[in-house]
Amino acid sequence: MSFIRDCWYCAGWSAGFGQALETRRMLGEDLVLFRGEDGRLRALEDTCPHRFLPLSMGRLVGNTVQCGYHGMTFDGSGACVRVPGQTNVPASARVRSYPVEERSGIVWVWMGDPARADTAKIFDLPEMHDPAWAMHHGDALDIRANYMAVAENLCDPAHVSFVHPTTLGNAASEDVPVETRREQGPTGEVIVTWRWIRDGEPIGFFKRFGGFTGHVDRWHYYYMHCPNIAAIDFGSAPTEAALPEGERNRGVRIWALHFLTPVDADRTVDYWMHIRNAATDVAGVEEQMDAMFRTAFDEDKEILEAVQARETALAARPGGAPRPLRIAIDLGPNLYRKAIDRLAAAEAAAGPG
């Protein structure tokens, strides 16, 4: 399979990168990331061009990284600046460097042509900068599944009734149809899937963090920013409030953000976080929410890994795997696959920069 490379991918939270060498495998490529003594974060190919030792096995020297085998030293641009024992540095002594940006405590790495690295395409939400909302960086979920399968799960509100019955869903939503549309956002195409569940029992999450005991109206809006970011707006309000679609801020509202970074063809890291308009100054609420999110996302992980394993086994049979059955709730995932095809075609047509 091919990856969409002209894209910003999350490598983690800014707080997780100090003056040390950190490794990441992204889109089948091995990177070493490091924050120099000037505070700036850099990303290089994690391979010394001399004997191919991973640079991450070396050491940080100021704003450079020194190979642990023979001491060749590389700056943030990937150029070799020192070869011990000789004064001349071969022009070919360099490694690939990757553009890095930090926004809202998130580390973004551009995996495509550096000449096309457009910082305007870095994901953002107004609520990330609004003092009325609380933002919390969560965790990283390592999933043994292809990133498109993980993304399809994040275009699919219908699964929550069955996969997350104690946390993010319940039986009240089982037969509520899913609506779907396409939009154009600041970073590209967005697949939107959503539904409202009117006058139903609150889900476990909002029983705990919204304090709801009576019936509520609740919503799930899944915004898949192609190819790799899901912004899920979910919340609840008392049924008697009869909230219209455009007044969701009057309810208890959460944005759950998922930044999907393919590791290789059958492994994905989901960096997740949340933004909330409730309990914004309650001590310890982030840790409590993290615990409930981990329960829910581990449920997704179990499902997705089982599907990946079965697809792999079916593909190995004579004649290959059968085509999956498609039903009404699959419109969002189908539109997502088509969007990925368009992105891949556009990238191929652009060619190397």
Automatic annotation (TrEMBL):
Record keyword Phosphoprotein present: no
Gene3D superfamilies registered for this protein in UniProt: Naphthalene 1,2-dioxygenase Alpha Subunit, Chain A, domain 1 (3.90.380.10), Rieske [2Fe-2S] iron-sulphur domain (2.102.10.10)
InterPro entries attached to this UniProt entry: Cholesterol_7-desaturase, Rieske_2Fe-2S, Rieske_2Fe-2S_sf, VanA_C_cat
Superkingdom of the source species: Bacteria
Any one GO MF annotation of this record: dioxygenase activity
Residue stretches making up the Rieske domain: 8-109
UniProtKB keywords: 2Fe-2S, Dioxygenase, Iron, Iron-sulfur, Metal-binding, Oxidoreductase
CDD domains, A to Z: RHO_alpha_C_DMO-like (cd08878)
SUPFAM superfamilies tied to this protein: Bet v1-like (SSF55961), ISP domain (SSF50022)
PANTHER family assigned: 3-KETOSTEROID-9-ALPHA-MONOOXYGENASE, OXYGENASE COMPONENT (PTHR21266:SF60), IRON-SULFUR DOMAIN CONTAINING PROTEIN (PTHR21266)
Name under which the protein is recorded: Aromatic ring-hydroxylating dioxygenase subunit alpha
Biological classification of the source: Bacteria, Pseudomonadati, Pseudomonadota, Alphaproteobacteria, Rhodobacterales
